[in-house]
Amino acid sequence: MFLFISIALLSVLIYQVQCGPRTKSYSEIKRCDIGHLADEIASYDTVVKDIIDYVVSGPFQRKTYDELEKFVDKFGARPSGSQELEDSIDYMIQLTREEEINDIVTEELEVPHWMRGTEKITLLEPRVKEIDLLGLGRSATTPPEGITAEVVVVKNFEELSELSNNDVEGKIVLYDPIFTTYGETVVYRSQGASRAAEKGAVASLVRSIAPFSINTPHTGSQNYNDNFKKIPAAAISLEDADLLRRFYDRGEKIVLNMTMLSAYETKTSRNTIIDLKGREDPEKLVIVSGHIDSWDVGQGAMDDGGGLFVSWAAPVIMKRLNLRPKRTVRSIFWTAEELGLIGAYAYEEKHRNESHNINFIMESDEGTFTPLGLAVAGTQKARCIIAEILKLFKSINASTLVESDSPGSDIAVIIRNGIPGASLHNANERYFWFHHTEGDTINVENPEELDLCTAFWTAVTYIIADISVDIPR
């Protein structure tokens, strides 16, 4: 089944998702002329107001937050391949049926199931100290007794390349890049182990990919290059990485004992697809989505419980308000995103012959804080139409359009084929404080902000699905 993705291809896509062009944002695209369509879009102002009122101050107020709260408290973390993930999928199906939406299918696929075991690092020299860590996804293991080795600290791959193999062989490499942007910095997590192994290192550590820390390691995916030995790879906190850097800069010898045990197997999981059928062109799709899996730490409330639930809410609210758009609104709960966009790849492969029917695809996977607008991929005309739609959200300050060639994570697999799409642009400055940590709990979410995201997400989806023209490619 569809699990064994080319590592080279996956690495390229992840680079595009995380490091693709970051472009300027602005409220309205200049020199847009969409003719009478502008008047048609403006006529949806009453519908937008009705949806916002219904969610922010009406019967759906706090509903998204309350359902998310129950969900993450019941299931906690939902790692790829786990029973918790599969139980949570069943739960979301039942929750949707309770809203009298029954056009639901699941599609099975093989997914990785990486199970974290004992993880321990002890600083032995120049003094004794326990160091918190989180192993990176699918990390190789150490021997049961661990690895005891000296540490080499480098800021980037350039510094590593300047060291001779003799300088690195048999040692642990610690990368300690200072966080700039996620896209720029995450390469030391995703590629660091193989780069270190190429020089003969026995293990790889990375300063957590985050701008802020309260001694909290951040886990995440990493990819091995099959040309080099697979060595253990873990993240440590900013505080401990900086401590080791200070020792290193003073010329003090650093010795660690590092133990990392884990298990790996493949399991069966499911993508979940919920359709609210269109009244005129049911074969045409406007897709909203979020991933239902999470890392094995925290509750996965922010990453990506919030995105999951705003995408669940969109067809639910439309049905409650008797809003049936021309095109079908499809909500997808991606599985196994965290270990390599596995669910998205499987969906794209299975539905490739139907991709001409995707009018627009959206994803929320970068927080559900105060909504600001959309990050949009597509032609200039497509962006002009979306920019016109966003003008309807000035009342909640969510009218910004950000141009991006690769918004989102899962949907990048589909957008790269020329399909227009967007991700939620929100005030997520604190997102990477909690990302992939034990701190990703319901405490990060705010009911009022989540209501605004829900209303915005639903109203934008409805307009795109209902206007007279397809979003151009």
Q: How do the helices and strands line up, and which of them pair or pack?
A:
Blueprint: H1 7-19, E1 25-26, H2 37-42, H3 45-56, H4 63-75, H5 83-97, E2 104-125, E3 129-131, E4 133-135, E5 147-154, H6 157-162, H7 165-168, E6 172-175, H8 182-185, H9 187-190, H10 192-198, E7 203-207, E8 233-236, H11 238-249, E9 255-276, E10 281-291, H12 301-320, E11 327-334, H13 342-350, E12 358-363, E13 371-377, H14 380-390, E14 400-403, H15 412-415, E15 421-426, H16 431-434, H17 447-466
Parallel strand pairs: 5-6, 6-7, 7-8, 10-11, 10-12, 12-15, 13-14
Antiparallel strand pairs: 1-14, 2-3, 2-9, 4-8, 5-9, 9-11, 13-15
Helix pairs in contact: 3-17, 4-12, 4-17, 12-17
| Biggest sheet record | 15 strands, mixed
Percent of residues in helices comes to 25-40%
Strand content: 15-25%
Please count the beta strands (DSSP E, at least 2 residues each).
Answer: 15
Radius of gyration: 23 Å
Morphology: elongated
User: How far is it from the N-terminal to the C-terminal residue, by CA?
Assistant: 31 Å
- Oligomer classification: single chain
Structural class: alpha/beta
> Total number of helical segments?
17
> Mean pLDDT, rounded to whole units?
94
**Low-confidence parts:** 1-28
